[in-house]
Amino acid sequence: MSPRTLPRCSARWAGLVLLLLTTELCVGYRENARTCPPRCTCAGELLDCSRMKKGQTPETIPEWTVQLDLSHNKLQVLRAALFSNLPHLKEIKLNNNDLERIPDFGACALNITTLVLANNRISRIWPDQLQPLLALETLDLSSNNMVDIRADSFPLLPLRNLILNSNRISALEPGCFVNLSSTLQVLRLNRNRLSTIPAKIFQLPNLQHLELSRNRIRKVEGLTFQGLHALRSLKMQRNAINRLMDGALWGLSNMEVLHLDYNNLTEVSKGWLYGLDHLQHLHLAHNAIVRIRPHAWEFCQNLRQLDLASTHLARLEEASFSGLSLLDQLHLGNNRISFIADGAFRGLSHLQTLDLQNNEISWTIEDMNGPFSALDRLRKL
Questions:
Q1: Is pLDDT above 60 for 30?
Q2: Which of 21, 36, 92, 320 is the most exposed place for a label (fewest CB within 10 A)?
Q3: Does domain 200-210+218-381 match CATH 3.40.50.2000?
């Protein structure tokens, strides 16, 4: 080959190589293209087939699907074949359908980590329905027809989040959560029909957040929450609680937030506050509290926020807040306070916000000698 023809041949070879590479890339693209089934939408790893016609599902689900939304389809049953080849599926939303049982997801059940079944017609949890879900971490069964949680409801699962809000649950059988004890971190039982909490029912040493609001609980016995060593927040608003027995909250030494607002409590005493060494936020608004017992705060001196608004308090005695030297916020608005003893706020050296609005304190403030003189860090009154 002469030197004159070498550049032309090199150019031809380069063009041929570029053509082969382009062809290979195009074939590869076609092979890996993510097709979206009719009447569904696709975004990244999500296949959204919600709000299709009544009882309909796509003919097939693409193999690449990681997140699947089949909500709002009025589904009564699911074809097992629909999940026959979904090795990447991890999250399924089946809320707002007409399912009466937890579906069978076939082989792909092994990889599912999140299952949302809220707003269906499920009346009971059967262990064989959950047994195949060996990777399940979040289960939402809110707004179904369950009336109890039985001792055999849950097999051994790695559940971290269990949501059972807005059912008709009136009974928790002993041992009903025992198979979830090593992993469960969040348990929500709001808007049910629980009137009592069996002692030591929550043997969940890793649970961090427990919600029992809007039930029918009237009395909490001592040691009710024993076994919740890691609990950080407890919500029991809007029950009918009128008695917290001594030691009712014992065992919650790591709890930081306690919501007891909108109940019928009549007093604050150290008996039911016993053991709350790390409590920082205590919400007691909208109760019928008429007195704060002497030394009430002896066992929870790490409080940062105390809400006693809209209760029936009429007097603040000299030792009403004794021991709360770390308190930042104190809410006493919308009460009947007409008497504040000299030194009632003494010791609140860190207090920055004091709310006394809508009380009857005009005369007592005039008669006091520097009622707020001890509040060196107060910013808002």
A1: no
A2: 21
A3: no
